[in-house]
C-alpha cells in the first residue's frame, strides 16, 4: 500500500511540474557558443581571412559562406520558480567558408557579408519569436528545437532568394536593393547584437 501511495505521489509531482508555466525565460545573444574556427556576428572586420577552407574548384561559384544559428537552452528550478535561459548566436564557420582569389573582389566580399547579415537577421527574428512564447516545463525543449529548425529553414530559403535575385552578387542594381533591404530589417530588429 505504501508503495502505491508513493508511486501516486511521484506521478502527481511529475504531472504538476510538467504542466507548470516557466516563470522567467531569458533569451540572450551569446558569442560564447562559437567554437574554434567560428566567428559570431557582428564580425570586427569582415574580410577574406574568414574564408579559410580550400576552394571548391568544381563549383561555379566564386565564394561560399557557411553560416547558421546556434541555440543552447537550459531550465532550472529556483525556490518555487522555474527559470529558463535560451542562448542564441549567428555564426560563420571559417573552416568551411572559401573563396577563389582569382574571381573575388570587393563586390564579392560584400555579397558574402550579405549572407552573414541574413543569418544574423534570422537569429534576431528567432529571438523575437521566442520572447513571445509562453513556455511550460513540458513544451520548453520541443518548442525551442522546433523554432530553431523553422528559422534555419526560413534562413535557407531567404539565402536562396538572395542569390537568385542578385545572381550571386553579379547584378549590381539588385545587390544594392538587397543591401538596403537587409540594412533596414536589421535596424528594425529589436534584438540586433
Topology:
Blueprint: H1 2-18, E1 24-29, E2 38-40, E3 63-64, E4 67-78, E5 81-93, E6 98-99, H2 106-132, H3 140-166, H4 172-188
Parallel strand pairs: 1-5
Antiparallel strand pairs: 2-5, 3-6, 4-5
Helix pairs in contact: 2-3, 2-4
Low-confidence runs: 1-16
Overall tally of domains: 1
Percent range for β-strand residues: 15-25%
Based on helices, strands and strand pairing, what is the structural class? alpha+beta
Mean pLDDT: 90
- Helix content estimate: 40-55%
Tell me the distance between the termini.
Answer: 58 Å
| Helix-strand topology string | HEEEEEEHHH
SS element count, helices: 4
Q: Please give the number of β-strands.
A: 6
| Radius of gyration over all CA atoms, rounded | 21 Å
Largest sheet: 4 strands, mixed
Rough outline = elongated
Amino acid at each position: 500500500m505504501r508503495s502505491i501511495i508513493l508511486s501516486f505521489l511521484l506521478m502527481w509531482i511529475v504531472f504538476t511540474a510538467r504542466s507548470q508555466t516557466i516563470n522567467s525565460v531569458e533569451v540572450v545573444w551569446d558569442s560564447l557558443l562559437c567554437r574554434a574556427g567560428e566567428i559570431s556576428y557582428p564580425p570586427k572586420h569582415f574580410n577574406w581571412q574568414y574564408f579559410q577552407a580550400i576552394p571548391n574548384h568544381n563549383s561555379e561559384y566564386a565564394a561560399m559562406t557557411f553560416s547558421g544559428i546556434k541555440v543552447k537552452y537550459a531550465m532550472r528550478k529556483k525556490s518555487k520558480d522555474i527559470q529558463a535561459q535560451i542562448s542564441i548566436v549567428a555564426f560563420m564557420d571559417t573552416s568551411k567558408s572559401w573563396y577563389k582569389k582569382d574571381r573575388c573582389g570587393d563586390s564579392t566580399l560584400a555579397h558574402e557579408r550579405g549572407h552573414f547579415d541574413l543569418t544574423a537577421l534570422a537569429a534576431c527574428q528567432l529571438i523575437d519569436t521566442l520572447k513571445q512564447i509562453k513556455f511550460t516545463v513540458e513544451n520548453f525543449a520541443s518548442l525551442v528545437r522546433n523554432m530553431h529548425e523553422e528559422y534555419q529553414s526560413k534562413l535557407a530559403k531567404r539565402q536562396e532568394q538572395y542569390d537568385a535575385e542578385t545572381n550571386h552578387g553579379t547584378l549590381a542594381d539588385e545587390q544594392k536593393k538587397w543591401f538596403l533591404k537587409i540594412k533596414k530589417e536589421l535596424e528594425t530588429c529589436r534584438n540586433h547584437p
